[in-house]
């Protein structure tokens, strides 16, 4: 499963540089090619339009001099198959199919023959299930279709095969579809669903014990972000109680204030960047909005990032 970890790194890089202009009000369109693999009981969905990200001016400006390097295992995979995720992946959908299992669906120029040959050469065990050949890697599995790849726990990949066998795809939960309809068109990155503190730890989100404790009451939320020439992102978290939402908002606002005081003299550009982050709360809902200038982000990358990295060494 190491190469899919590398893919996740690339996706994270793309998301990390995300920026946007004003977002239109129309809802985002649902990607039917990937949604047909998600069972009705899916708890959450995240979507990344990688092709659109690569066309965004800010993304191009940031990566043009550095490019995107592949982790060693993924570079070996690319050399053997001719498949370069930075070039050939167009869309990535991640479904939270159960509390402890997720399914990654990648779309793009995926050569089924070459990738399956690579998996066989690496000793991955083929298993035929409902007419489809999946390749096992311990408890994980790969399913390669024409221009689509599915990766996840073997049981989850089999559930996706079950779903694709149905003559008509069953709809996702109504509350999940309602949340998706709140995502505005033009966002290349978005996510909706039910989340928990364990989910955040799984994807690498860490924090002080009081923060983790407050996050235990996180029920569900949405996230949307788009790249253009500036940055606009919005995250909305719904908690089971208003106190947790208020306490977490107060903690975030306090952290921003302290950060401004610490960098005011040394890095004034960071003050402007921190001013672009706003935290609000109403009842049991916490909202974080980010509005940043693309020019400022590029300036910070050039001038501030090397200094911060030097201080951390």
Q: What ranges have pLDDT less than 50 throughout 5 or more consecutive residues? A: 1-24, 308-313
Q: Note the gap between the termini.
A: 31 Å
Radius of gyration over C-alpha positions, nearest whole angstrom: 21 Å
- What is the molecular shape? globular
Strand order of the largest sheet: 4-5-6-7-3-2-1-8-9-10-12-11
Major sheet summary line: 12 strands, antiparallel
> If helices are DSSP runs of H or I spanning 4 or more residues, what is the number of helices?
14
Given helix and strand content, the structural type is alpha+beta
Average pLDDT metric = 82
Strand content: 25-35%
Would you count the extended β strands for me?
A: 12
| Domains, number | 2
Helix content: 40-55%
- One letter per element, helices H and strands E, the order comes to HHEHHHHEEHEEEEHHEHHEEHHEEH
Q: What would your notes on this structure say?
A:
This protein is α+β, with helices and mostly antiparallel strands. It has 2 domains: 2-165, no CATH class; 207-312, no CATH class. It has helices at 2-16, 32-35, 50-55, 57-63, 72-81, 85-88, 112-121, 154-165, 174-180, 197-202, 209-215, 242-263, 268-275, 294-312; strands spanning 44-49, 89-98, 101-108, 125-129, 132-137, 140-145, 148-153, 189-194, 218-227, 231-239, 277-282, 285-292. A 12-stranded antiparallel β-sheet has the order 4-5-6-7-3-2-1-8-9-10-12-11, with helices on both faces. The two termini are 31 Å apart. Mean pLDDT is 82; it is low at 1-24 and 308-313.
């Amino acid at each position: 499963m190491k190469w899919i970890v590398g893919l996740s790194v690339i996706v994270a890089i793309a998301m990390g540089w995300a920026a946007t202009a004003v977002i239109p009000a129309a809802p985002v369109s649902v990607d039917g090619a990937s949604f047909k693999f998600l069972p009705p009981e899916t708890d959450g969905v995240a979507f990344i339009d990688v092709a659109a990200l690569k066309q965004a001016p800010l993304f191009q400006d940031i990566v043009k001099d550095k490019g995107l390097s592949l982790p060693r295992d993924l570079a070996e995979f690319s050399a053997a198959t001719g498949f370069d995720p930075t070039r050939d992946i167009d869309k990535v959908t991640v479904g939270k199919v159960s509390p402890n299992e997720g399914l990654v669906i990648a779309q793009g120029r995926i050569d089924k023959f070459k990738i399956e040959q690579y998996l066989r050469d690496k000793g991955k065990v083929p298993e035929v299930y409902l007419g489809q050949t999946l390749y096992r890697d311990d408890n994980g599995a790969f399913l390669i279709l024409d221009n689509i790849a599915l990766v996840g726990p073997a049981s989850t990949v089999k559930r996706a095969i079950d779903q694709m066998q149905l003559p008509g795809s069953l709809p996702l939960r109504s509350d999940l579809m309602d949340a998706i309809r709140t995502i505005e068109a033009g966002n290349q990155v978005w996510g909706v669903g039910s989340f928990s503190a364990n989910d955040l730890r799984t994807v690498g989100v860490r924090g002080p014990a009081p923060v983790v404790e407050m996050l235990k009451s996180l029920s569900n939320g949405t996230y949307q972000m788009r790249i253009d020439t500036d940055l606009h992102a919005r995250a909305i978290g719904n908690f089971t109680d208003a106190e947790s939402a208020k306490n977490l908002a107060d903690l975030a606002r306090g952290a921003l204030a302290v950060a401004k005081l610490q960098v005011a003299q040394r890095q004034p550009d960071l003050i402007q960047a921190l001013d672009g982050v706003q935290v609000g709360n109403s009842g049991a809902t916490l909202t974080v909005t980010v509005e940043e200038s693309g020019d400022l982000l590029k300036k910070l990358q050039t001038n501030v990032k090397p200094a911060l990295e030097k201080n951390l060494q």
